[in-house]
Amino acid sequence: MIPAEILKKVKRVELRTRKLVNTVFSGEYHSVFKGQGMAFSEVRGYQPGDEIRTIYWNVTARMGEPFVKVFDEERELSVILIVDASGSGDFGTVDQMKGEIAVEICALLAFSAIQNNDRVGLIIFTDEVERYVPPKKGKKHVLRVIRELLYFQPEHRRTDVAEALDYLNCLNLRRSVVFMVSDFRSGDFESALRAAKRKHDVIGISVHDPREEALPNVGIVELEDAETGEEILLDTSDAETRALFERQYQDRAAARVELFRSLGVDTIDVTTAEPYVDPLMRFFKARALKIRA
User: Fold this and answer.
1) pTM (2 decimals)?
2) What does the alpha-carbon distance between residue 173 and residue 176 come to, in Å, rounded to a whole number?
3) CA torsion sign, 185 to 187 to 188 to 189?
4) What share of the chain is helix, strand, coil (3-state, %, to 5)?
């Protein structure tokens, strides 16, 4: 039995994200993520400007006037959401936790997908894959995906991105659009990402919080690693300590950016300090321009 509070959260997430889909995202999603090819639709009379290659010669000969084949895009895609449920998602110093924003992003992408008649699947991982929901169509299925994300209680706290990608690579799926939502604070996952990229269209969505980038000067504080439970005392009044903290974050971020760039994987950087719609829209517009170029 799903608790009433979870059902209320599902409804809130649905209302919030469905509005964005209907007003902003649907057309952008459709233009960026194309189907697997073109399928024959119908035959109609030739019109000036039609491609000569589309003339249906058998019908043309039978009818005594030119007819052409009409093709429609095969829209059916599979969208796989790979979501990091490790302990570091339970962190946020603005309005929402990183994990809460990840759920809303996934809901937005899922509703955009089903509005375009695509299938949606889900992989929830920590340092192992803890839940897999095979891709299906329909609003009922998407609501199940959102419930899974909101209701899920992970058994582990650590992160292993390679484990999630290896699991994806072993699934018997045709080429899919894969959104991986994580802070990517993990061990090496280059080879697994390279293998996934060869088979699928992979997009990394990195979610972080401003306090992970830089520390405020608030004196001595006790910090706990959300994944390992390790606790340390840190003197934030020390300028060198703050500089080291910031430099370590920048080094990790730069390494992640370079890895994705070298493999040709698109990335979207989301922060809890600004609406996630903005970086998502920038991604869609940039990719649309790339496709038209």
Assistant:
1) 0.83
2) 7
3) negative
4) 45, 25, 30
